[in-house]
Amino acid sequence: ADLKNADLKSLAELGQGNGGSVEKVEHVPSGTIMAKKIVLIDAKPSVRKQILRELQIMHSCRSPFIVSSYGAFLAEPNICICMEFMDKGSFDGVYKKVGAIPIDVVRQVAFSVLEGLMYLYDVHRIIHRDIKPSNILFNSLGEIKLCDFGVSGELINSIAHTFVGTSIYMSPERIQGAEYSVKSDVWSLGISLIELAQGRFPFASTSDSDDENDSDLEDTGAKTERQQTWHARTHSTGVSLDGGGMTMSIIELMHQIVKEPAPRLRFAGSPEEFVDACLLKDPEERKTPKELLKYAWMQQALRSTFDLKAWASTF
Ligand code: ADP
Ligand code: MG
């Protein structure tokens, strides 16, 4: 049966992002709980139809590492996408709630994201394009799944003007204008893993170290006001290049990503080796998801008996 707004009862607001918002809803005829993403689009009717066709790909994704889709429909001037509701939310929310994520969990996140990326690319020839903690979801069964992948080129083009396609997880080559590749997603994964393991975004604003001293670099607890601003604004509303006070700090960040050595996961042995391979600045040298799955840390993930379900029940 076709999905329509009349059948969906709104239960709670789950969050706001770049192009829209996400609600927890009940599909009343079936009693199914879903997450409904509402995207305000700026496009002609023909383009809207094209977007809906492209979203069909999402509907055909069947993988334990990809959030499943119930379908999408137009509700002028929005597009609504109904997907599997993940009751533990996204990993940015998880670490903001529980603090730095245990390394065993970070390892399983890495493994799940790589498996998800492999599935999208091998089966559907899709590059995700927006890997970040808020697009990695968790549920109380202990499942880790990706959402919000770039199924629709037209949708990406049509998300209203506020979205400029800039992300703080962007790879150095993307910042410099190169085409997207699956290796850009690998970079974003590396940054996301450090963020989860440390409980904070790994880049620090350079002007903070100008007017303060550098001694707090290792102090994961202390956040400067500017970092928090970055964090809050880039996570909740997306990066707006004309957003007044943001302009300098986002350019500063982009400069750091391109010019400074990549951040590292300070966790000796296989986790460090793995994240270093994700964050090689030259995309030619950086590893592919397939290569990364052969790393020692991912082999441990494959054999892991860590109980994600039990961990999920702790918060
Ligand atoms: P962003 O990913 O940039 O935060 P989104 O609009 O994509 O913005 O999502 C907003 C929030 O909604 C996310 O941060 C996430 O916590 C929540 N969310 C998205 N999809 C789901 C889902 N399927 N189940 C549960 N929560 C979700
Ligand atoms: Mg998202």
UniProtKB/TrEMBL annotation:
Keywords: ATP-binding, Kinase, Nucleotide-binding, Serine/threonine-protein kinase, Transferase. One of its GO terms (molecular function) is ATP binding. Residues 205-237 are annotated as: Disordered. The chain holds residues 96 to 410 of 410 of the full protein. ATP binds at residue 37. It comes from the Eukaryota. It comes from Sphagnurus paluster. One of its GO terms (biological process) is MAPK cascade. Residues 208-219 have a biased composition (Acidic residues). Belongs to the protein kinase superfamily. STE Ser/Thr protein kinase family. MAP kinase kinase subfamily. This is Protein kinase domain-containing protein. The keyword Nucleotide-binding applies. Residues 8-298 form the Protein kinase domain. The keyword Protein biosynthesis does not apply.
